[in-house]
Amino acid sequence: MENLQLPPKPEKSLFKKIRAIFITLLVIAMYVWTFVGIDIDWGRAIERSISNFHRVVPKLFSPDWAAAGDVGLAMLETVFIAFAGSLMAAVLAVPLSFLAAQNMMGGKVVSTIGKWILSAIRAFPDLILAILFVVAVGPNAFAGVLAIAIGSTGMLGKMFSEIIESIDMDVVQAMEANGANKIQILFYGVIPQITPEFLSYAIYRFEVDIRASSILGIVGAGGIGTMIVFASSNRNWNEMGMILLAIIIVVTVIDFASARIRRKIV
Amino acid sequence: MIEFKDVGLVYPNGTEGLKNINVKINEGEFVVIVGLSGAGKSTFIRSINRLVTPTSGSLLVDGEDILNYHSGNLRKLRTKVGMIFQNYNLVKRSNVFKNVLAGRLGHTGTLRSILNLYSKEDKSLAYESLNRVNIAEKLYNRADELSGGQQQRVSIARVLTQKPKYILADEPVASLDPPTSHQVMTYLKKINKEDKITTIVNLHFIDMAMEYADRIIGMRAGEVVFDGPASEVTEKTFEEIYGRSIREDDLRGGADES
Amino acid sequence: MTNENQSLVQKSVPLYPAKTKMQVTIIFFVVLGIYAFSMFWTQKEMVNGFGGALGNMYVVIEKFFPPNLSILPAIWNAMMQTIQMAIIATTVAAILTVPLAVLSAQNITTFKPLYVLTRTFLNLLRTIPDLVLAVIFVGLFGVGVFPGILALTIFSLGILAKLISETIESVDMNPLEAMRASGGNVFQVIWYALVPQVLPQFTSLVLYVFEINIRASVVLGLVGAGGIGLVLNQQLKFYNYPNAMTVILVIFAVVLIIEYISNKIREALI
């Protein structure tokens, strides 16, 4: 038994071997390229951090309560932007998702086009959309609403279409056999199956949008982001501490509430 | 030798898993525990390698009370006691060989096992174990490519690779069809006889218990209600253990097919 | 009895219970009310109202188009820097996330206080927007790539650790029990029974976070944390919209390409 020889491992095909080597080399090359190319001035970073540490960090932990009113108002605006934006997106995403779902519109061509539209929308970061809308409607909160609405439509449309594709088509077939027409099938066979998940994702998207809309102010699209930019350019770290506190509280509360509501729905 | 002395187990939610168990299992025995589901068979078996911990009494394995064992000697105990599960408990995405080598974990240092540095002896032991259950040709297949019976044989090979003194098998055939069930039981019995490994098996099929056991222990509601050699057992005994008459689904059948 | 039944039929049985109907109606109007108020609030600073805004869309197109493609070579380096930042941040986050994800998975970390502590820490981490992290780190380390990488790392760590701990919580626990029963210690159990089950999802989630990081690094540049965002910010400040449009198009293309590649890798994995 001591001298027992293991049978040889089954030979991998040449193609698989070459592919494995190719992938390994590619990954190595990627990291070499990254670490050679990146330019970090460690000396300066360390020097700066030593001289800045006491000017920044302790102040973040002693928030400026005098700014609480302004910060609260800006945070409220952020919530409004997120709410209006995600609701608009939830409505806009519905028709697009039906377009992109393979089991609804029949043709594969239509659903591919729908999917392309959605992923094209998603490729724009929220902030880029905000830049475009600020130029269009001026530097105000409504630019933020539009940016959130369009940005979320891309993501929600994708999620919604996946939900539609996963529904139980037997029900739909049964109704077809009953002699129901397309609209009837939609209302009696499809919508009841997708409503809870749609709502759940829309509410989840609101969570994400709260985070997203809190930074839009940096390009002038309203909300608490405007204050972040002012506080950082004035090096007012006490105020930044207050802003951070407000964001943490609001985001936590909304996450918590949304998780509870979603659990109730599904 | 395994000895239960007044062993009791109360779960945190208050249910009594085991009540006042006194049982002595001798070297080399093939013991089958029978009883309805919920009778405490599984708790009994899992106490021996401390996957559950009894709350009273003492449980001696080779003369030592294992109930006050902690991490270090607990690992040693588990290395000595191999276990086979109803759902095979293989890592589905790993290949058969790696699954079987996992039986050596208790004997191997952490770093060596993580870097896959097994000795040649360990590897040939694993291969030999696979040979003994006639599944060596599946060495490099992924576990999820095998049928249920094949997976259970791999898990027997894993236990063999562990070189245990005792084997515990918790409902090893409950998820298998009759012919495969007999095949698996035959392997267990063969290993018990050839390697003199004390084997304790949970079953709820009466005919299989009578066919393979040296000794049968009957449990009901956490208590041992019967303990005797398989030759003394009749259908009447089972009716007493189960507290009801024997039904079709208490029998596995298919003995002549295998 | 018969009488009551008859009166029920005459009243016509509603499809849904009256209480549910009432609740849904109330919720609907509350949501609509908040929406109307939000719209009013966010539009109150607008000079020309919604109609004027739509008219402006044409102005935008005129301002941004045609993009000035001649600056492409000049922004190439900044775009590459952004990708490099995202690669480093994703790699570091993927390494750091392993212990955090294990500690915040309820089925592995049975010691409850430790689990609660890590969970709370991760939840807190995830509430801080990437921009705020970048602003703080730029304040701390000065303008450059380093604060950007740090911000991305911490930002993606929060997301990744949560997603992976959820994956860990959904694995099949049986193999873990078997490894424990054969005498494996904690590390061996994790390595042999947990890692093979989690690895495909782990890779897939790391790719997903890489996509998020590419997008986020655009944001970071705006506050001085390096990469393509820095260039975008300069162009916007000088109202050089055709140049800004080129930057936007490059970002758009890179995000699409990376999403395509990572989708292909993900399909090959699962």
TrEMBL record, chain A:
State the Gene3D superfamilies in the record.
MetI-like
One Gene Ontology term of the molecular function aspect: ABC-type phosphonate transporter activity
All copies of the ABC transmembrane type-1 domain together span 75-258
The keyword Mitochondrion appears for this protein? no
Fetch the PROSITE patterns from UniProt.
Answer: ABC_TM1
Describe its membrane topology. Multi-pass membrane protein
Q: Does the keyword 4Fe-4S apply?
A: no
Keywords carried by this UniProt record: Membrane, Transmembrane, Transmembrane helix, Transport
GO CC, sorted alphabetically, is: cell envelope; plasma membrane
Localization in the cell: Cell envelope; Cell membrane; Membrane
* Cross-referenced InterPro entries: MetI-like (IPR000515), MetI-like_sf (IPR035906), PhnE/PtxC (IPR005769)
- Bilayer-spanning residue ranges: 20-38, 79-101, 215-234, 240-259
Coarse class of the protein's main subcellular location? other
The UniProt similarity line reads:
Belongs to the binding-protein-dependent transport system permease family.
Protein's name in the database: Phosphonate ABC transporter, permease protein PhnE
Gene responsible for this protein: phnE
TrEMBL record, chain B:
Q: Indicate yes or no for the key word Phosphoprotein.
A: no
Q: Which GO terms describe its cellular component?
A: membrane
Q: Does the keyword Transport apply?
A: yes
Q: Which domain of life is it from?
A: Bacteria
Give the originating organism: Ornithinibacillus caprae
The UniProt entry, under InterPro entries, shows:
AAA+_ATPase (IPR003593), ABC_transporter-like_ATP-bd (IPR003439), ABC_transporter-like_CS (IPR017871), ABC_transpr_PhnC (IPR012693), MetN_ABC_transporter-like (IPR050086), P-loop_NTPase (IPR027417)
Protein name according to UniProt: Phosphonate ABC transporter ATP-binding protein
One Pfam family this sequence matches: ABC_tran
Keywords from UniProt, A to Z, are: ATP-binding, Cell membrane, Membrane, Nucleotide-binding, Phosphonate transport, Translocase, Transport
NCBIfam families from the entry?
ABC_phnC
Instruction: List the Gene Ontology MF annotations in alphabetical order.
Output: ABC-type phosphonate transporter activity; ATP binding; ATP hydrolysis activity
Q: Where is the ABC transporter domain?
A: 2-246
PROSITE patterns noted in UniProt: ABC_TRANSPORTER_1 (PS00211), ABC_TRANSPORTER_2 (PS50893)
User: Per UniProt, what is the name of the gene that codes for the protein in this document?
Assistant: phnC
From TrEMBL, chain C:
Cite the ABC transmembrane type-1 domain residue spans from the record: 79-262
Is-annotated flag, keyword Transmembrane helix? Answer: yes
Q: Which family does it belong to?
A: Belongs to the binding-protein-dependent transport system permease family.
Report the principal subcellular site: membrane
Q: Which UniProt keywords apply?
A: Cell membrane, Membrane, Transmembrane, Transmembrane helix, Transport
Q: Name one GO molecular function term.
A: ABC-type phosphonate transporter activity
- Per UniProt, what is the membrane topology? Multi-pass membrane protein
Q: Where in the cell is it found?
A: Cell membrane
Sequence intervals crossing the membrane: 22-41, 82-103, 131-164, 189-210, 217-236, 242-261
Task: Look up keyword Cell cycle and say if it applies.
Answer: no
Q: Name one Pfam family in it.
A: BPD_transp_1
Gene that specifies this protein: phnE
What is the name of the protein in this document? Phosphonate ABC transporter, permease protein PhnE
Question: Could you name the Gene Ontology cellular component terms for this entry?
Answer: plasma membrane
